[in-house]
Amino acid sequence: MKVSPEIAALKPYVPGKPIEETQREFGLKDVIKLASNENPLGVSPRVAEALKLALTDLHRYPDAGAVQLIQAGSQAWSVPAENLAVGNGSNELIDLLIRIYCEPGDAILTFQHAFVAYPVCAQAARARVIEVPTGPDFQMSLSTLAEKLRKDRGTQKIRLVCLANPNNPTGVLIPWSEISVFLKEFGNDPDLLIVFDEAYVEYVTSKDYRPMIQEFRHWNSVVVLRTLSKAYGLAGLRVGFLAGPLSVVDLVNRVRNPFNVNSLAQVAAIAALQDPEFVQRGVELNTKERAWVAGQLQSMGLKVIESQANFVLFDSKKSVKALNQRLLSRGLILRPVLNYGLDGFVRMSIGTHEENAKALQILGEVLNEGVAANGDGVR
Ligand SMILES: *Cc1c(COP(=O)(O)O)cnc(C)c1O
User: Fold this and answer.
1) Closest C-alpha to 270, from 244, 292, 247, 239
2) Predicted confidence (pLDDT) per residue in 139-183, tens digit
3) Phi, psi for residue 324 in degrees, rounded to 5
4) What distance lies between CA 75 and its chain's CA centroid?
5) How many degrees, rounded to 5, is the angle at CA 203 between CA 91 and CA 209?
6) Nearest in space to 226 (alpha carbons), one of 33, 62, 83, 63
């Protein structure tokens, strides 16, 4: 049967290479994975405890309303429960927002090199993607985006503005000083929804930032996405939150699958949200190691993009395909970001100090041995 050209042209998501696959392929025992921005400290011990107790109830359906989970989110972030909805990871919430608000041919507006879920979900919903170019070092200028929005909405139905802040894969942050100006003009626009995807917000150390989960209620057209996949260490269980106006929460709850967050995920997420000290430990480790890793990469002569997240993006100036194969053969999984149109660039998640030190050693050795330069045609 024929499908739409947008669906036919969809490319499968390229995840970080799994550890087991790398071990098998290269006959290795020790493999370090710093490719998917996961929490190097694992999960809170409270999560493991809570999961054990939940195993006796697996024959029951999950709570479709995720009432206790939403309560836990409400308490953790001081947001009214009625303003929260949950998703199977925040990825599902991105997908739902686009399906809810975009009809085929409508558009979403985002930055160049933004999180890949936006264009993929848009394409699946036959929505168009308008990309605003980033500036030097991948800076995202909201005044440039506002200009584009004013200009293009005359001819296109732009429904969503999708902002990953900080952005993945660049780690770049849009400062609050720019956001506040942007929201004065568009924060209550009745034909627009501005989505702040705060997947890495826990790791932000810049003084010029206000978590949008504390701010969204001042506007009618702002929603915030949070995930438990990064700082809370629950990537494998798939839990995300949306915070937004009641009208948005209501629509998400009507369109989503009623059991989108399974019962183990709900139990684990509640325990994780109730252990802020665990998150804090991970954040402190990240702040320290992020600065150290960036400094080490720079001292290897590599250009590093300043990051406010739990990873750093650097320019290897090499053919990343060739570089990556060499790193994998030495037991190091990093993330080439060719799928973001960033040739030569590699994203390295921040691990434990031991992992980071070992990773930098391997990277240094491989670069010293020599790898084909970027643009040599080795792709
Ligand atoms: C990792 C990430 C997410 C989280 O996705 P989940 O589906 O919640 O695991 C969302 N947005 C960005 C920008 C990310 O990098």
Assistant:
1) 239
2) 999 999 999 999 999 999 999 999 999 999 999 999 999 999 999
3) -65, -40
4) 23
5) 95
6) 83
CA of 183 to the centre of ligand 1 (A): 23
CA of 90 to the centre of ligand 1 (A): 6
pLDDT number for residue 378 = 43
pLDDT, tens digit, for every residue of 105-122?
Answer: 999 999 999 999 999 999
Q: What is the position in ligand 1's atom list of the atom closest to the CA of 228?
A: 8
Q: Which residues of 155-168 are buried (b: 16+ CB within 10 A; e: fewer)?
A: eeebbbbbbbbbbb
Q: 88 CB less than 6 Å from ligand 1?
A: no
pLDDT tens for 164-173 read: 999 999 999 9
Who contacts 101 (Cβ-Cβ below 8 Å, separation ≥6)?
159, 160, 193
| Nearest residue by C-alpha to atom 10 in ligand 1 | 199
Assess whether pLDDT exceeds 90 at residue 21.
yes
Q: What confidence tier does 379 reach under pLDDT thresholds 50, 70, 90? A: very low
Note the pTM of the prediction, 2 decimals: 0.96
Q: How far away, in angstroms, is 227 Cα from ligand 1 center?
A: 6
CA–CA gap between residue 365 and residue 349 (Å, rounded): 19
DSSP letters spanning 53-96: HHGGGTTSPP-TT-HHHHHHHHHHHT--GGGEEEESHHHHHHHH
The Cα 16–Cα 7 span in angstroms is 23
